[in-house]
Design goal:
This protein has 168 residues and is α+β, with helices and mostly antiparallel strands. Helices cover 32% and strands 27% of the residues. It contains four helices and six strands. α1 packs antiparallel against α2 and α1 runs parallel beside α4. The longest helix is centred in the N-terminal third of the chain and has 16 residues. The two termini are 22 Å apart. Bound molecules: methionine sulfoxide (SME). The site of methionine sulfoxide has 14 residues, from α3 and β6.
Length: 168
């Protein structure tokens, strides 16, 4: 049995450090991407409070036919396919940069998978490829609270994405 949980009252920095230790431990020596993403989604749900959807979209296809396809998550059923450049996830996939959105209703093209979502953090997972870094997936965190996520969350999830690069 795995029993990972953050102690009450820890700072965001401590929380992400503990989360990423748990992720490193649970994915160590395992190369099945789906299994790793499923366990990481469960850990995100346990470690990151005030979230209503946490999980992955994977990059499927090549070149101009690339799109995001739903991966393991914790939350309500979500849209399955997202074109590059569309919505918050599509912007992260296309730009290769994290998207920290305080008010999803103000984000052009935001895709409302859960009407309760008010703010969102999406971080791309990059892997070195033949043409430089390529986005292989995005990590998506949604919150029912406006402006839930800040720089500490972005830094913590970016560290998670770096850790996952060769594990998903
Ligand atoms: N809101 C996202 C879509 C994914 S769901 O939130 C799970 C977006 O605009 O990309």
């Amino acid at each position: 049995m795995y029993d990972f949980a953050p102690p009450d009252g820890c700072s965001p920095e401590e929380r992400y450090a503990l989360l990423n230790e748990a992720v490193a431990a649970i994915t160590h020596g395992e190369d099945d991407a789906i299994a790793n993403m499923a366990n990481i989604a469960a850990l995100l749900g346990e470690f990151i409070p005030d979230t209503n959807w946490v999980g992955f979209y994977r990059v499927i296809g090549e070149g101009d036919s690339r799109e995001l396809v739903l991966g393991p998550f914790v939350g309500r059923p979500a849209c399955i396919r997202i074109p590059f450049g569309v919505g918050v996830c599509g912007a992260a996939a296309q730009s290769g940069a994290a998207q920290l959105v305080e008010d999803v209703h103000a984000f052009p093209g935001h895709i409302a998978c859960d009407a309760n979502s008010r703010s969102e953090l999406v971080v791309p997972v990059l892997r070195a490829g033949q043409n430089g870094d390529e986005v292989v997936a995005v990590i998506d965190l949604d919150s029912p609270s406006p402006a839930r996520f800040g720089p500490a969350d972005q830094a913590g999830v970016e560290a998670l994405a770096a850790l996952l690069s060769d594990r998903i």
